[in-house]
TrEMBL record:
Residue stretches making up the VIT domain: 1-132
Pfam family, one: VIT
SMART domains: VIT
PROSITE patterns given in the database record: VIT (PS51468)
Organism: Gigaspora margarita
Domain of life of the organism encoding this protein: Eukaryota
Designated name of the protein: von willebrand domain-containing protein
Length: 245
């Protein structure tokens, strides 16, 4: 949830769209999340957002785009980052068009995102990339991929629903695709959390499948999205090499 952090009053900043693109490779997943917010207040605001992505996750990319300006995250020591963020906000708080962002880990897997100096009517696009080790589900003999509900909470659908006047599926704030690339043939893919809301597309390679969330009647995540991927020989040792072009 994104909140306008005023001194004596905290207001919800509407989440207008969420896009998730994930790639699961055996026991590892790379997740790219895009969230779009809009400042409907009459004044500039500093917004703060806390979210959970799992205690085995590591954030490896962060971008914030305001209008045509993109801020790209750089990893620095925690206190140095905080001091530089506060300095920028204090200097440019009265200069329209200037802003700063700060992403920090509050606890294991709990991150806090601060975006300063958002002007009235301005939209902010936040992109976060993280990698996470996914666990083996002994009950189904599958790997369990979890997408936390905090990336698209119920609160984010409020403004969107007020804007809707029909069931036109073109207006939809939650959209994601998961590509499953396993070492061996995929035997089954299912979602115990959303069994009726996913589509599975298989390609010629039996080790690869594409999972999408059906848009109809899905406006937010009420609970975590869980995907179980069962493939052959998942318990065998393996190694991967990633090329950096």
């Amino acid at each position: 949830m994104l909140i306008a952090a005023e001194k004596n009053n905290k207001k919800l900043v509407p989440l207008t769209k969420v896009v998730v693109n994930a790639c699961v490779v055996d026991m590892i997943a790379e997740v790219n999340i895009t969230q779009i917010y809009e400042n409907l207040e009459e004044n500039n605001i500093e917004a703060i957002y806390e979210f959970i992505i799992g205690d085995t996750a590591a954030v490896c990319g962060f971008e914030a785009t305001i209008d045509d300006k993109t801020i790209i995250g750089i990893v620095k020591e925690a206190e140095q980052s905080k001091n530089e963020y506060k300095e920028v906000i204090n200097v440019f708080v009265h200069h329209n068009g200037y802003g700063a962002c700060l992403l920090e880990e509050q606890d294991s897997g709990v991150f806090k995102c601060s975006v300063g100096n958002i002007m009235p009517g301005q939209k902010v696009e936040i992109k976060i990339k993280y990698v996470i080790e996914i666990q083996h589900d002994a009950g189904s003999d599958s790997v369990r991929f979890i997408l936390p509900a905090t990336i698209a909470p119920k609160y984010g659908s409020y403004i969107f629903k007020k804007m809707r006047h029909s069931t036109d599926s073109d207006y939809f704030p939650l959209d994601f695709i998961i590509i499953c690339r396993m070492s061996s043939q995929i035997d089954s893919i299912k979602s115990p959390s959303h069994p009726h809301h996913i589509s599975i597309d298989k390609v010629e390679d039996p080790r690869i499948s594409k999972v999408t969330l059906n848009r109809e009647n899905i406006y937010y995540l009420e609970n975590d999205f869980i995907l179980l991927i069962k493939s052959r020989n998942i318990d065998e040792p393996r190694a991967f090499i990633e090329y950096n072009p």
